[in-house]
Amino acid sequence: MATAPALRLPDVDAMSAEDVLVWAYEQFGDRMCLTCSWQRQSSALLHMISELGLDIPVVELDTLVLFPETYGTRERLVERYGLELRSFRPIDAPDRLWEREPDRCCHIRKVEPLERALAEYDAWITGIRREQSPTRANAQKVEWSERYGVWKVQPLVDWDAKRVQAYIHVNEIPYNPLHDAGYPSIGCVPCTRPVTAGEDERAGRWAGSDKLECGIHINAPLIKESND
Ligand code: SF4
Question: pTM surpassing 0.90?
Answer without folding.
Answer: yes
